[in-house]
Amino acid sequence: MFFAMLSVVFPYKKVVLCFLLPGHSHNIADRVIAWCRGATRKMNIYTPSLAVDEVNKVKSVHGVFLNHNDPSHPFYVGWGDLLDKYFKAPPACYTANYLFEIDQGVCTARKTVDTPDENAIVFEMVDPNSTDSIRKAVIKDLFDQAVSTIWEASVRNVQLPRHQTKELTEKKMKSLSAKYFSIPPQHLHYYPSVPDAVANAPVQSADQTDETTTTPSNPKSKRKPGRPRKQKNKLKPNQPSILQFFSPAKQ
Q: I need a surface site. Which of 97, 110, 173, 232 has the fewest CB within 10 A?
């Protein structure tokens, strides 16, 4: 219904959604996630901006941190009530198709891109005879009574409720603040309720850090993945075989 709203409210010729067939749609996404995980593996990342900087070093990846607490990047909720008021839900089993063309709230669903028109299904998500009135009503409900066209609208005029910030409990804050000592001072501004003892702690130089850091003399090798193998007991020299215990006694 959201894309049907886009086709009605915005001056698009057509809104097209194309989903890949099963077995293909997730491969690229999984691959990109693996690339990003590899780029940040064994790294100390203290803020989202640092994570974005490292992820953007991966070829063909462009990451952006959307902070809904930032007034310039608001995150609105309550879309479901607005869409249910003006648009109809798609029919059952519509997800069996992979190509959707939405024109003024009327959707044409096809199994594949080359599916002929006679095999496609068409369903209306809005009354075609009242498209203009619905467009005006949605714009007024979504923005403001003074906004009559989408060209006059702005993100600052959106009337939907903003996503509320989840407040951490006092117990959780106390648990987090106990770990702030390991965060470099230049990144403490991102974290709430930093204790004075941590904020005013003297900054260690690189030489002092190297002196206090010790490495084990015999570091254990990393265990190989898979089921652990049992160590076979080695036979002691000159140890009789079990068959000798059951052999006929010598006369």
A: 232
| Amino acid identity, position 112 | T
Q: Give buried/exposed letters for 18-39 (b at 16+ CB in 10 A, else e).
A: eeeeeeeeeeeeeeeeeebeee
- Report d(CA 11, CA 197) in Å as an integer: 57
Integer angstrom CA distances of residue 130 from 124, 136, 171, 192: 12, 10, 54, 51
d(CA 195, CA 9): 50
Residue 9's CB is within 10 A of a number of other CB atoms, namely 20
Q: Alpha-carbon distance 146 to 237, whole Å? A: 97
Q: How confident is the model at residue 244 (pLDDT cuts 50, 70, 90)?
A: low
Burial class (CB in 10 A: 0-12, 13-18, 19+), 135: buried
In SS3 terms, 64-112 reads as: CCCCCCCCCCCCECCHHHHHHHHCCCCCCCHHHCCEEEEECCEEEEECC
Burial of 151 (0-12, 13-18, 19+ CB in 10 A): exposed
Band (199; pLDDT cuts 50, 70, 90): low
Rounded CA-CA distance 146/150 in Å is 11
